[in-house]
Design goal:
The protein is an alpha+beta fold. The chain has a single domain, classed as C8orf32 fold (Roll). It contains 10 helices and 9 strands. The chain has a 5-stranded antiparallel beta sheet with strand order 1-8-4-6-7. It has a two-stranded parallel sheet with strand order 2-3. Helix 1 packs across helix 5 and helix 2 packs antiparallel against helix 5. The longest helix has 15 residues. The radius of gyration is 17 Å and the shape is globular. It comes from Desulfobotulus pelophilus. It holds the Pfam family Transglut_core.
């Protein structure tokens, strides 16, 4: 049965605290990770601490993606120390659930105006389909948090690190540190209580056939952060 989308208006359910194959919040290493950062008796501070631990402790890397059950598990990303946007969102969702905070996965299509030349060539587009974020239920409402880009990567790209205070939505900045247009959200796919892997795979194969072929053959090679010394800002001519 396919994983169904829910909305920000849907109140927390048991599924939002449940460990799954991908969001394996009952994994012993993940529980230990949560314990290191949790603030006893304060869900908001715990959510903020977990956000920063995932944002900066897990390097963003879109080249080393493994679309398998093991490859997409939260505990695998924690062990690897790197992951792309969806993997990092899965990890934050699992860590929040381990701390007793209801959490869901969110996805949106975005235009990313910031990329290395190599990534642009491999993708063949500046459209990122099913970009991942996390929704956390704090103080009686769902709040969005995006732990994608670690601080060091942001500094190399001249992008302000995206912060999260546990009270307001934390989505990708529309402008970089120099005021140039950076990220545009084009379509929101809603929230999910588990990973909609079939939807993500199909959308990715449609959008990036060559990149997906490379990943299926063992990866595209390289380390994204090592390329960021020569970044490029990609803009569209909409005229």
């Amino acid at each position: 049965m396919p994983v169904q989308a829910v909305t920000m208006e849907t109140p927390p359910e048991d599924a939002d605290l449940t460990s799954t194959v991908y969001i394996d919040s009952d994994n012993v290493d993940l529980i230990a990770f949560c314990s290191r950062h949790a603030i006893s008796g304060n869900p908001v501070q715990t959510a903020v601490a977990l956000y920063h631990a995932v944002r900066d402790g897990i390097l963003y890397d879109p080249y080393r993606i493994v679309f398998s059950i093991h490859g997409m598990k939260a505990s695998t990303t924690l062990h690897n120390g790197y992951g792309y946007c969806v993997a990092k969102a899965i990890l934050l969702t699992a860590a929040a659930r381990a701390a007793g905070i209801p959490a869901r996965l969110g996805f949106a299509n975005v235009r990313n105006h910031l990329a290395t030349p190599r990534l642009q060539e491999i993708m063949g587009t500046d459209l990122f389909v099913y970009h991942g974020y996390t929704a956390l239920f704090l103080r009686g409402r769902w709040v969005k948090a995006t732990p994608t880009f670690n601080r060091e990567l942001c500094e190399r790209f001249a992008v302000l690190p995206l912060d999260f205070d546990g009270k307001t939505d934390s989505l990708l900045h529309p402008f970089d540190a120099h005021g140039k247009q950076h990220m545009v959200y084009e379509k929101d796919h809603g929230l999910f209580q588990d990973l909609p892997i079939k939807l993500i795979l199909q959308a990715s194969m449609d959008a990036y056939p060559e990149m997906m072929k490379g990943l299926q053959q063992g990866g595209t090679g390289g380390r994204f952060q090592e390329e960021t010394g020569a970044f490029c800002t990609v803009t569209r001519d909409d005229s």
